[in-house]
Recover the amino acids of this structure.
């Protein structure tokens, strides 16, 4: 299996505080990966480690089969604030891109600028937030990377611009042999653009995997109150809540659920992400497999 990102025991400490802890991940190539989690969860830290902008305090991280940072030409990175040079024009940015990147695709860059109706003479400092994000994406795509890493690329965009941005990204993924890892606060964006998800909370990966597989193996069970130790061994409890007479479990299992006492419902991606993000109960049984 070709992997775009592999982390083993990866951790990062700022001073005495861990921003990322014990991170184990294997992300196969060919996916659009959504990295979700609340503010301060460690998403930017993980992405910065992946692109070699930060060095680990513990563990290792490999990108495209080599230590992070070793393959700069194959990795495109758009940081959280979609950095551009305010005083340089759009065409200056393309010229820089051409000089700095061996696999630069000039026609792709020009086509995108035209399609976005951007004036090549306009300075980046005069672009709107959405236009700047689109320029940064153009630079990232024209680099023709094998992996494109986007840190909250759509945070500053209005809903329509966000939709267009993600649409452009998906088209680029369909046309180029490209893997993408993007962080976002919005599950709806991940649902629209991604086929793989990583949920990061409090500096730890809570769950990761292909979205279809995760949705096919997670269920909500509602029925008469039941102790978690009476659930089958193959059912891993993600969250549990109880009233006097009723229990509701969100579980992960590979096996079909035959127990007629339960009303079984499928989860949406949002249900699943929010369950892992809001998991504050400490179930008495094994909680989950972090990865498949
Ligand atoms: N340069 C830094 N110095 C000290 N602490 C930092 C630094 N950068 C991040 N942190 C801390 O590390 C933790 C993780 O931050 P990080 O920016 O990776 O989270 P995030 O998930 O990207 O958050 P957000 O969604 O708000 O962008 C936070 O507690 C943050 O305060």
């Amino acid at each position: 299996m070709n992997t775009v990102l592999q982390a083993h025991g990866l951790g990062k400490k700022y001073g005495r505080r861990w921003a990322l802890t014990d991170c184990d991940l294997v992300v196969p190539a060919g996916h659009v990966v959504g990295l979700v989690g609340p503010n301060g969860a460690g998403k930017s830290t993980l992405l910065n480690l992946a692109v070699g902008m930060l060095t680990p305090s513990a563990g290792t991280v490999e990108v495209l089969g080599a230590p992070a940072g070793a393959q700069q030409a194959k990795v495109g990175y758009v940081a959280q604030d979609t950095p551009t040079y305010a005083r340089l024009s759009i065409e200056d940015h393309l010229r820089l891109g051409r000089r700095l990147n061996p696999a630069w695709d000039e026609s792709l860059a020009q086509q995108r600028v035209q399609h976005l109706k951007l004036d090549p003479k306009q300075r980046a400092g005069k672009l709107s937030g959405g236009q700047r994000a689109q320029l940064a994406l153009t630079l990232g795509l024209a680099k023709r990377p094998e992996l494109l890493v986007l840190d909250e690329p759509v945070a500053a965009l209005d809903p329509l611009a966000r939709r267009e941005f993600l649409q452009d990204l998906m088209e680029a993924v369909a046309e180029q042999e490209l893997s993408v890892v993007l962080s976002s606060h919005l599950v709806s964006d991940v649902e629209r653009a991604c086929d793989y998800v990583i949920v990061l909370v409090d500096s730890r990966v809570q769950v990761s995997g292909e979205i279809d597989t995760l949705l096919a193996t997670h269920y909500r069970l509602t029925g008469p109150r039941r102790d978690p130790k009476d659930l089958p061994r193959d059912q891993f409890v993600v969250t549990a809540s109880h009233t006097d007479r009723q229990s509701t479990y969100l579980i992960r299992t590979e096996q079909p659920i035959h127990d007629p006492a339960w009303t079984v419902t499928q989860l949406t991606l949002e249900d699943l992400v929010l369950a892992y993000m809001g998991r504050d109960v400490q179930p008495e049984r094994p909680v989950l497999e972090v990865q498949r």
Remarks:
- Confidence is low (pLDDT under 50) at residues 281-292.
- The pocket of adenosine-5'-triphosphate is lined by residues 14, 19, 37, 39-45 (CB under 6 Å).
- The longest strand covers residues 3-14.
